[in-house]
Design brief:
7 strands; Preprotein translocase SecY subunit; 2 domains; single chain
Length: about 475
């Protein structure tokens, strides 16, 4: 143990980290750090990687949404290395292949150290994989390939540091913030952009919308369909808008479903509080991990692609058309049909699409459930850890003597079932949103709404005396 510990700690001490502040930061300071980090993130997403060939990355839109990335820029990897490292450790520790007791300080320290180290390693591994698979086309030269991989890895390491700044100097986590920022901007553009899809830089004429060249924004397309009585355009524009509104309202409603565990202070009669256990006990983490797993699987499917006589590119796991969209193969069945609801209404669904609906639903919901249970066990949200936290605050369950084991036994009736049920339902909700055709993909919209709601709860629990007035008004404090 000491040999493993000393070796790991020797390696980890060279891993760049952001130190925690030595004092409690005021609200405004933490908010400024969030704005600074978000500005750096957006700036880096517009700095192109040197040495890559011009290319369109529409086929990687799912990657960009769930990984908070921007292909072709320094932010190509996004949060991919962080999430991939977390997935691997979650699976290894949760399945007891690596037997670390995360209820103890030593186990948590090992988990955190290996998570940092693996995230750095995956910056280089994923950068190399993106280049070799052709996801990032480069000039075929060994020095250029090395240069591009180093740039991609550098961008990934910067994201890791920005995530640490948010978690230690700001609010929440950088992983969630980057996902919400990327998907949020995509949703706003898709809903309200008045520029047509043909718009290109330095060509003003191509950016003027018209009836024959409508704006990208679904809201404007909806208005045009009403004036022109174009029934097809009406359905194409209104269905994603209604699906987006429905998912938003439903997620906000379900966020408030919880079980309240009554607690009291043993030394002070008449004083107490409740300990809330949400229906979505592990929040949006299962969906983030499941979506990231899907993105990584799709990247692996691009390895070893060979050109076919019909112009497609096929490998052992999947085949892709000329635009880069998956069209067949084993992995084809764990991705949802494109525009499912619109095609259903128009009668354009194929029998194979129904099979994909079933297989995709089973895969995504199962992964969300598994990751929810693993996250509960590895993040200090298990009954033992929560019971210890409650016991140390001097609270007890009314009607029982003050004993940590009693609190644990009571919590054990609720927390594991909630982890399973919450992971199942949040995965099912993401799948339903995907099938409804919500803007920004159903998974992306679900993540964004849950992240924004989580930030609402974080801000509501803070001391808002020095917060900007618009935030106090937004939270109903003024």
């Amino acid at each position: 143990m000491s040999e493993e510990k000393s070796l790991l700690e020797k390696i980890v001490q060279y891993v760049p980290v952001v130190e925690k502040p030595t004092f409690k930061l005021p609200f405004n300071t933490r908010l400024k750090w969030m704005i600074i980090v978000l500005s750096i993130y957006f700036l880096l997403s517009y700095i192109p990687v040197a040495g890559i060939l011009p290319s369109h990355y529409e086929q990687f839109k799912f990657f960009e949404l769930v990984l908070g990335s921007k292909f072709g820029s320094l932010m190509t990897l996004g949060i991919g290395p962080i999430v991939t490292a977390g997935i691997i450790l979650e699976l290894l520790v949760g399945s007891k292949i690596i037997d670390w007791d995360l209820t103890k300080e030593e186990g948590r320290r090992k988990f955190e150290n290996w998570n940092k180290l693996l995230a750095i390693i995956f910056c280089f591994v994923e950068g190399f994989a993106y280049v070799i698979s052709g996801a990032i086309p480069v000039i075929p030269s060994l020095p250029i390939i090395i240069l591009v991989v180093l740039q991609l890895a550098l961008g990934g390491i910067i994201v890791i540091l920005l995530d640490q700044i948010i978690s230690k100097w700001g609010f929440g986590s950088g992983v969630s913030l980057f996902i919400a920022a990327g998907i949020g901007s995509t949703i706003l553009i898709r809903l309200f952009s008045f520029l047509p899809p043909t718009c290109t830089a330095w060509n003003f004429a191509s950016c003027i919308p018209s009836i024959s060249n409508p704006p990208t924004g679904l809201f404007w397309q909806f208005l045009i369909s009403l004036f022109t009585q174009n029934l097809n355009l009406f359905f194409i524009s209104i269905i994603p808008i209604l699906a987006t509104i429905f998912v938003f309202l439903f997620v906000v409603y379900t966020q408030d479903i919880r079980i309240e565990i009554p607690l009291s202070y043993g030394m002070l009669r008449g004083f107490g509080r409740s300990w809330p256990l949400k229906l979505f006990y592990t929040s949006n983490i299962p969906v983030i991990l499941a979506a990231a797993l899907l993105a990584n699987i799709q990247l692996m499917a691009r390895a070893g692609l060979q050109p076919m006589p019909d112009g497609t590119m096929c490998g052992p796991l999947a085949c892709f058309d000329q635009s880069g969209r998956m069209i067949s193969g084993i992995l084809y069945f764990i991705y949802p049909p494109h525009n499912f609801l619109i095609n259903l209404i128009q009668g354009n669904l194929l029998p194979l699409d129904w099979i994909r609906v079933i297989t995709y639903t089973i895969f995504f919901v199962a992964m969300s459930t598994i990751f929810s249970v693993f996250w509960m066990r590895t993040s200090g949200m298990d009954p033992e850890s929560v019971a210890k936290q409650i016991h140390e605050t001097g609270l007890q369950i009314p009607g029982y003597r003050r004993d940590e084991r009693i609190i644990r036994d009571v919590l054990n009736r609720y927390i594991p079932p909630l982890a399973v049920l919450g992971g199942f339902l949040v995965g099912l909700l993401a799948v339903m949103a995907d099938f409804l055709g919500a803007v920004g993909t159903g998974t992306g919209l679900l993540l964004t709404v849950m992240i924004i709601y989580n930030y609402y709860e974080i801000f509501s629990s803070e001391n808002l005396e020095d917060a900007p007035s618009f935030i106090r008004k937004l939270l109903g404090e003024e």
